[in-house]
Write a structure and sequence with these properties.
Elements: E1 2-4, E2 31-33, E3 44-48, E4 51-54, E5 63-66, E6 71-76, E7 80-86, E8 96-103, E9 112-118, E10 130-135, E11 138-141, E12 162-164, E13 173-176, E14 189-193, E15 205-207, E16 226-229, E17 238-241, E18 244-248, E19 257-259, H1 262-265, E20 274-280, E21 289-294, E22 300-305, E23 311-313, E24 331-333, E25 342-345, E26 348-352, H2 354-357, E27 362-365, E28 377-382, E29 391-406, E30 417-423, E31 440-444, E32 454-457, E33 466-467, E34 472-475, E35 491-496, E36 505-507, H3 520-523, E37 528-532, E38 537-539, E39 542-544, E40 555-556, E41 574-575, E42 581-589, E43 594-602, E44 604-605, E45 616-620, E46 628-629, E47 645-654, E48 659-669, E49 672-673, E50 678-679, E51 683-692, H4 700-704, E52 711-712, E53 714-719, E54 727-729, E55 737-741, E56 749-755, E57 762-768, E58 771-776, E59 779-784, E60 788-794, E61 801-806, E62 816-824, E63 830-832, E64 835-839
Parallel strand pairs: 1-61, 4-33, 30-37
Antiparallel strand pairs: 2-29, 3-29, 4-5, 5-6, 6-7, 8-9, 9-10, 10-11, 12-13, 13-14, 14-15, 16-17, 17-18, 18-19, 20-21, 21-22, 22-23, 24-25, 25-26, 26-27, 28-29, 30-34, 31-32, 31-35, 35-36, 37-38, 38-39, 40-53, 41-48, 42-48, 42-51, 43-47, 43-53, 44-48, 45-46, 45-48, 49-52, 50-51, 54-64, 55-56, ...
Length: 841
Amino acid sequence: MVVLLPTVLLFHFASPALPQQTETGRAEVPLTLFTNSDWPQGLELGEATGISFGDYDADGWIDLFAFDSAHLWRNLNGESWLLAADLDSILPFPAQRYGSSFGDYNNDGLPDIGTEPRRGTPTMDACFHLLRNLGAGQFLDVAGDSRILDVQPCGADSETIAWADVDGDGDLDMFLPTYQVALGSIDNQFLHNLGPTGPRGEYRFQEVAASAGLLIPDGAARPEGCWFLDLDGDGDLDLYSNGHAYQNQSDIDQPKFEYLKAFASGIRKRNVVDEGVIFADYDLDGDFDLLINYTSQRGLRIWENQGDGSFFDASSDVIEDFQDGATYGISAADWDMDGDIDFQALDTFRVNRMMEDGVRFFEKATTTIPSDHLRGATIAWGDWDRDGDPDAAIGNGMWPGFLYQNTRISSPDSIPYLRVFALRDAEGHPLGLETEYGAAVEVRWPTDLKGRRRRQSLSSASGYLNQNEYALTFALPTFPEGSRKANMPFQASVDFGSLPQQGYARVDAFVNPTLAGLAMDAMGNVRELRIFRSGKVLYRNTLLQPQVEGGSPLVTSGDGLIRPTQDQGPPVPTPSAIADEFVGIELETKIDPLHLRELLFDGSPGEGFLPEEGHFRIWDVTDPLQPQAVSFSSLELVMDPRNHRSTFPLDVVLQPGRKYRLIASVSSFRPTPINGPVDQGHFVLNGGLRFQDPARGSGFAAAQATLDTTQVYLAVRLSEQIPDWVPLHSGSTLDLTVSAKGEASPGSALELQLGGAPPNTEVVLIAGSKIFCRPLLGAQPVVPFPETVISGLQTDSAGDLTVIASWPGNLPRNRALFFQFLVREPGASWSTSPAVGRLSR
């Protein structure tokens, strides 16, 4: 049966709520001591020099471990706590203990624990311990087994552990920062995970800090805080420790780093000891800035990221009373749930005013927490009760630590938020492995015209001797009641760590269109999203398949843009000496179409093109006498003028066998050397362009500009796969089949075909631009949010149904559309067909 539907499909398309303020006008930290009938005086965590959140029993509720007391606390479904184990039973008597870190080093779904020892008398323990999680609250210390760890680090003054897969082999490696030999310790330790190569398939480690280039440089301060993340934008995970950025130069299963000198990275004060570091995008420009708590009265300072792997020292005026709370400990979280990152140092809390006022300023906040609970405060943040706001487990030096409850969210609807898990796929672990440390997660709101970005870095090291929970929480914009913007679909994406030779591992809406269908009204009170490296998405226990199997890593033209080397930082962009200056690159495609996904831009934009606004455009110059502007390629480059590099989303298809010139209007520029032409398999990067065009965008000047094969001024990330119609979910009845044909552009004809259904049975078509994944008419899961419901359909005698419709004209570009059939089964029950979806083009 064929049914023709009308072309109309229905689509219903601020500033954040302000935190409570005191009479002084300052924000108040929304933390109160957790108490209940089990713990009427509060949950006393015992001695907790450091504190870590981690789900040791993999039940979905984050637990707590304090290495100092060796107490492992079990979260009882967000309602109370139970002392699950005292791991002193397997740990030797110490001189002193610092923090610890959860990390699933053997990929079994149960987080293991690495410890941070301190030296003492010769008879007291000062060794690193690796506690393998056996399940049911049982652990085995395997660090002393030379078959598992070739050399157990002992006699160490160690600090904040960082886990990450730095060499692209799929296994978690571990960096243990320890003091220099000259200070009586053993220097940095790097445990390279060799995978299941030990006895009976046990995972084992080899200490390789020296060969990996991770020892402490001469003249550097002793290490305290550290962090793995992609600093220079090439995809692999770099490291910050002991006053230095270490650039990742690894091959697969061969870790290798090189430290950058201060004048190359821009990060100075290399000989000043820090007491913790944080990487966070505090100014919402899309790159991760470095916040350091220094000793020696240097106070709290911010090194601002210029977008290209180099930094500059921000004014101390950015932080109110920048020496208050300095010298010990640091942590960060959006504890007031307004969309920007706040931080704490020792007994002082500061709220970020970026979202409220649009200014770079951390203002001191008031707190009712007793001073004796903050004498040695190292805070781990985690939403242990899953109400949406981050709670605080306070490590307190050698004094007892306590758990504090965040009261910012008073009801499920008071502040919209989203919790995102970046996960590794593993057979037998449907919820994924929490091992993707170093990933960067972004949530994009479509109506934010100020260029603000919501981006967070996932790290096992969370400042100093602390570990935040694995999930990242994003506070979303709030709007007046009844505003259509409140329920507008938004997008999420994850950049997973990967070596350049493996491709840039991004999972976004082009890989899985369900990531463009997130909306508060469709989500209800379930606001957790699990995004897998393979491109799969798990929401409400519904596994949503990617359009591109395996995630389709991106290819970067050339080798990207210029990055720091050990001895030299990227040069400052050159101001244009002439008016109407343009720069660009030339790409030549081969036999396959290519999908441009991101622009990398160095410098600053100029006046733009005429007659249309915008600073970037693509021209098809296959026939240089008749250049053609490529549809949807115009971009307005809104960027922070303090940055030297910014990235911008693209959604442009380049056709095979064509020559293209990608052009930007500039007021400053910076070339990157190449040895062109560069053959990159499916395309050739021919070289760069720099020219003047008084007409500002006729296309003729772009086509006639002289090609320079020695340098480029832009770069793009692209994929070889073009998204198409594929089933996102199998449905509840495997015999049902669904296929879709047609372009995802306004007014284009669509053909939806249902097969395998009972003959002459009732059918309902559900369509929507948001994901729902809940029951409807007793059938589940229904993937689309039911914005459009077409009832009264019927299969033919063969059990088939064809529906002819048109792609809606009012659906904005890059907005998703999903379809699913509900089929009446014998016995009057309903079943769901597979769901299909695509992005609007």
